[in-house]
Amino acid sequence: EVEKVPLHNFKIIYELLEAIEKLITPQVVEKILGRATVLAEFKIDSDRIAGCKCVEGVIAKSSHIKVQRGDTVIGVTRIKSLKTKQTEAPSVKSGTEFGVLFTPHLDFKISDSIISFETSSGQS
Question: b/e per residue, 12-51, with b = 16+ CB within 10 A?
Fold first, then answer.
């Protein structure tokens, strides 16, 4: 008590192991900013461009991006280029159609979901 060291009692060993794991594992919280659906694929030179429609929130060029097929995450990437009507855009809102080039490249398919998110870490 003088040294202000927390004391814990556990009756079952797995409760101790769970408590230790929570203390040493950083908790990452993912906040979804927007969702889009891949409607088409365009090939220009060696680039594969996903033709998408934002269906919820905002897709921003600066956000982290997940490509998801059903419940399976295909990969996490960043946006190299985001264009609406042939013009580079910093972000797109719900209802907007756009073209996107990923870096690094991912093997997306038509009807995949594009999820824009940000992460923050904190302890529980």
Answer: eeeeeeeeeeeeeeeeeeeeebbbbbbeeeeeeeeeebbe
* Residue 18: its H or E element: helix 13-24
Q: Provide the whole-model pTM.
A: 0.71
Residue 124 has pLDDT above 50, yes or no: no
Half-sphere exposure of 124 (CA within 13 A, CB side): 12
SS3 content of the chain, % helix, strand, coil (to 5): 10, 60, 30
**Other residues' Cβ atoms within 10 Å of the Cβ of residue 54:** 22
How far apart, in whole angstroms, are the C-alpha atoms of residue 32 and residue 13? 36
Q: Cβ(112)–Cβ(38) under 8 Å?
A: yes
- The CA-to-CA distance between both ends of the chain, in Å, stands at 23
Whole-number pLDDT of residue 46: 85
